[in-house]
Amino acid sequence: MSSVLELNPAQLLEKYLQPHLIDRYFESLMAQNRKVNLVSRETSREDFERLIAESLLPMEILTSGFGSYLDIGSGGGFPAIPIMATERVFGEAFLLERTQKKAQALQQILNDLDLPAIVHDKDFEHFVLPSHFDLITLRYVKLTPRLLSRIMEFLNPGGSFLYFSEPEFKVKEFAIDSYTFKSPQSDAIKSFSIMSSGC
């Protein structure tokens, strides 16, 4: 069963991020996007701020800090960069982007924003992870039962796996809460799910 949340981009950006950081992120993302396809070439400032807000909305539910963080399929940095920019991640952050050119572009964006994270141009299925994590996020990769099982193996007790959709299969072995929200720019209904091991 899903809970319905309100998505207010202006309110979320004001609450969690400094305006100068948002400006720098947009400028850096657009500069890198001219070299490699990180987001749609038609992405406007309004679209960009909506993507940030969608990344931040789960932080209204996940109110604690995270000692370690892993993002899978990072692309242009959504949701990883907005989440890290909240300063709620106070330990190691690993971003996995299997396309080398995208990984290099993402590293440059992180450098431009002075955000500490380790970017790997590796696929999660074949990457030997150095540790377990308090928060794992997945946005632009389809979740399968096999992928979910591997992700949960790397989640610390009491940690959270944040998936920016709802699983297309029944999740039985893990606690799951799903939330829906409506994009202010359209009538599209979107969702995210938070899973834990229950420990």
Describe this structure in words.
This protein has an eight-stranded mixed sheet. The chain has one domain (2-196): Vaccinia Virus protein VP39 (Rossmann fold), CATH 3.40.50.150. The longest helix has 15 residues, at 19-33. It has 199 residues and is an alpha/beta fold. The model has no long low-confidence stretch (mean pLDDT 93). The chain has six helices and eight strands. Helix content is 32%, strand content 27%. Helix 4 (80-85) links the parallel strand 2 (66-72) and strand 3.
The best one-word shape is: globular
- How many beta-strand elements? 8
At the first level of CATH, the class is: Alpha Beta
Taking the alpha carbons of the first and last residues, their distance comes to: 22 Å
User: What would you call the structural class?
Assistant: alpha/beta
Radius of gyration: 16 Å
What is the overall pLDDT average?
93
How are the strands of the biggest sheet laid out side by side? Answer: 1-7-8-6-5-2-3-4
Shape-level CATH architecture: 3-Layer(aba) Sandwich
Spans of at least 5 consecutive residues with low confidence: none
Report the order of strands and helices.
Answer: EHHHEHEHEEHEEE
Helicity range of the residues? 25-40%
Portion of residues in beta strands equals 25-35%
How many helical stretches? 6
Under CATH, the topology can be stated as Rossmann fold
CATH homologous superfamily grouping: Vaccinia Virus protein VP39
Q: Characterize the main sheet.
A: 8 strands, mixed
Number of domains: 1
